[in-house]
Amino acid sequence: MSDPVVDARDVTYRHPDGTVAVDGVDLRIEPGTRVALLGANGAGKSTLLQLLGGLLDPSEGTVRWFGERDADVVRDRLSVLLQDADDYLFNPTVREDLAYGPRQLRLPANEVDERVATLAARFDLESLLDRPPFRLSGGEKRRAAFAAALSLDPEALLLDEPVSHLDAQNRRRILDALDELASEGVTTVVATPDPDLVPAVADRVCLLGPSGTVVADGTPREILTDRERLRAAGLRPPTLVRLFGDLDGVDGEDLPVSLSEADALLRRWRETE
Ligand SMILES: Nc1ncnc2c1ncn2[C@@H]1O[C@H](COP(=O)(O)OP(=O)(O)O)[C@@H](O)[C@H]1O
Ligand SMILES: [Mg+2]
């Protein structure tokens, strides 16, 4: 069996001021899975994501990547996309930002150009390639940062709130890119405070409680239909669960957690009318 992409054992992180942001987390992520880290604001998602991505060192506990203890060894196999797109865009042009990683890997120039062209097409950045990143709109920056994170062709991608504050079109582009990555077998980990987003991005959900612990780990259905537990974690159940859950006779496996399940349920009802 192949090594897990990330294997975190009893990981705790204390900020310099003493705040415990992540508390005794055990988390093993297998290759090719789609995981959501779901939690309210301040639950510790961003801190956990940085620990899982090797950008922060745990105060206690250990993290291994593909079986290795040294995150630097696997830098080109795992990319992290933090919330602030500006962290990834620091070259004079978008083109150079996309080429930066592949050049660091010393890929031949024609291969670098090819990667840049593919990413630009995938994220609709062609007309923006020669612009300085600071002249991009918020949505364009997020697309460019996503493209830069993929420029190393990683086996795993960790993303912090990748669609927060995006308009419908930019959101769609990012979600389509995540679908495509999943179909290519890339492991994805998405941190989000939004239960409604989860079915679109994950097959497994780790629910973070208010104090940096993982309080539940299961399928989207298991986690998203457990209203009590979501409320205890400071979250509202997804819109579909609230809407259908209040109707007589809709519970258990009938309760839709994704739009496609809701659609199927409505069709069944129409047929039996
Ligand atoms: N640089 C920091 N110094 C001290 N505490 C911090 C720092 N960054 C975050 N925290 C605290 O750590 C906890 C988790 O924060 P964070 O990981 O950003 O949560 P989330 O991403 O889920 O909103 C919060 O209590 C937050 O206030
Ligand atoms: Mg955060």
TrEMBL record:
It is a peripheral membrane protein. InterPro entries: AAA+_ATPase (IPR003593), ABC_transporter-like_ATP-bd (IPR003439), ABC_transporter-like_CS (IPR017871), ABC_transpr_CbiO/EcfA_su (IPR015856), ECF_ABC_transporter_ATP-bd (IPR050095), P-loop_NTPase (IPR027417). It is found in: Cell membrane. It holds the Pfam family ABC_tran. GO terms for molecular function: ATP binding; ATP hydrolysis activity; ATPase-coupled transmembrane transporter activity. Belongs to the ABC transporter superfamily. Probably part of an ABC transporter complex. Responsible for energy coupling to the transport system. This is Cobalt/nickel transport system ATP-binding protein. It comes from Halogranum rubrum. The lineage of its organism: Archaea, Methanobacteriati, Methanobacteriota, Stenosarchaea group, Halobacteria.
